[in-house]
Amino acid sequence: MADPLSACAGPLSGLEPERAGVLRAAIANSVLEGWAPTAADAERLAEVADGAVPLASYLDGAVERALAAATEVGSPDCEDAPRGFPDTLYPGTGVLRNRFGIRDADALRQLEFEIGTAQELGIETGTVALPPTYDGAHLRSIHRALFGTLYPWAGEFRRYDMALRDNTFHSYWIERYLEDAAHLLRNRLPHQHVALLGETKDRKVYAYQAAEAYAYLNCAHPFREGNGRSSKTLLQLLAAKAGYRLDFAAVSKRQWDTASHRSAPEHGHYRPDAHPLFSVFTAITTPLAVPA
Q1: What is the pLDDT of residues 12-53, one digit of tens each?
Q2: Beta strands in 29-148 (DSSP E)
Q3: What are the C-alpha distances in Å from 163 to residues 85, 168, 169, 219, 267?
Q4: DSSP code of 245?
Q5: Which DSSP category does 54 fall into?
Q6: Cβ neighbours of residue 58 closer than 8 Å, sequence gap 6 or more
Q7: Alpha carbon of 195 to those of 25, 134, 211, 283: distances in Å?
Q8: DSSP code for 101
Q9: Beta-bridge mates of residue 102
């Protein structure tokens, strides 16, 4: 199977290694959600990463490209807080209502990936500053930063149930799952570089704890779209504090999706089963250099 990040190798090779690693992981986050970036996509993102192009200018350019590529553009006709799942779509289509009225699914999806990846880069490099509370409020602010350019409901928890494959994500469980995830993120996962804690830390232990936190975030699924990218970004921020990078390119989309699906609780039960995610998080948890 072809490497979906192969087109990115050349454009990223000119970046400082640390910055290249951050951008590569951000691109890989989107790849796990279905993006197939081209060399041109990677080149434009690399220009943002090395400071040649301001983030705001990149976002403006992405919107211009999407509007030019879209086969149909109409009135935005958006709602800030959709009351039900059907209200998030333009009637008779599978296209999410958006601020630009783009009714071409492919053009909108490409724009969503471009903007989301660039904003994740901004969040992880400090260009986009968010309060680091590592809880539901933090997840809201990440989602709003990633997708607020496109969707007025970005950062707003859905008020309706949502089915995905054979899983139903109930809105009434959102707050509880996020509270449990926040407990794990704040109390189980280290917030300092593990090498500075004066303790022996096992990479697999960190991976298992991160997998458990992700299982709860995934069960919450609080947003209409962009749940995986937001949750992975939140975990990436905390991993960096502990001296790790989550290399999402180390697993395939199929591996990620299968493990995420299998971590869902059995019907009628609350607690997710993080065990299917352990091997995935062990593969992606990569140590960073110890700070001087």
Answers
A1: 999 999 999 999 999 999 999 999 999 999 999 999 999 999
A2: none
A3: 10, 4, 6, 12, 13
A4: E
A5: -
A6: 44, 45, 47, 48, 118
A7: 22, 21, 21, 20
A8: -
A9: 73
